[in-house]
Amino acid sequence: MRLNVKVWRQEGPTSKGRFEEHQIDGVEPQLSVLELLDALNEQLIDSGQEPVAFESDCREGICGACGVTVDGDVHGPEDNVPSCHQRLIHYSDGSTIRIEPLRAGAFPVLRDLIVDRGGLDDVIRAGGHVAVNAGTAPDADDLPIPTLVAEESLDFAACIGCGACVAACPNGSAHLFTGAKLTHLSLLPIPAQERNRRAKSMIAEADELFGPCSLYGECEQACPAGIPLTAIAAVNHERFLAGMRRRL
């Protein structure tokens, strides 16, 4: 089939962006959004034009680097699916597909479809790590963790930091991302020793760089890792606990 592709082009962070429209023939419905961009770039290179800059890495749905906005939907029309797994079965011959970067004030466009998601890294640097000096590696059974607790922690650790939650939120909030990291580490015995410090520093960083929660839950719908909305509740929960511990 033939698709009309409207793709965002922007030479740099300070340049004025625009949409370019191209026609691509021979598109198969099972192709992904990224494979469509590959086909577009081959066509542009063959005609002596500059290819579209976009990010991708594993193309297996586990890294989150591929995030773009497709027809106004973060990652694409299917919920909880990364861009590299969004298929073109939703389009028919002659349809138009609009591809642009993740749209959020905290994600400035670097070039074409590539945005700077460094704000998420800043939140992690603020406290999303374990700095407890545990000495030599303990035996595996020294700190028993109940199976259900370990599984819940791993569920929140599944966040891939793609930024879909921020782009989907009208306020550009990173509460789902921040809450996932806080919950993951608070459930484990060694990381929990820094729970108070971690909550204060990570939440303060997120509040400075990102907007407040919109309370509508768009983030959960866009998240390719399936992080639940309870991660958002964890932000205020951890904030409250950190404040209470400071008073005691």
Automatic annotation (TrEMBL):
Q: Which cofactor does it need?
A: [2Fe-2S] cluster; [3Fe-4S] cluster
Keywords associated with the record: Iron, Iron-sulfur, Metal-binding
Annotated SUPFAM superfamilies: 2Fe-2S ferredoxin-like, alpha-helical ferredoxin
Keyword Iron in record: yes
The 2Fe-2S ferredoxin-type domain is annotated at 3-103
Gene3D superfamilies given for it?
3.10.20.30, Alpha-helical ferredoxin (1.10.1060.10)
Source domain of life is Bacteria
Keyword Metal-binding part of the UniProt annotation: yes
GO terms of biological process kind: aerobic respiration; respiratory electron transport chain
UniProt xrefs under NCBIfam families: PRK07570.1
User: What protein does this entry describe?
Assistant: Succinate dehydrogenase
Q: Which organism is it from?
A: Tessaracoccus aquimaris
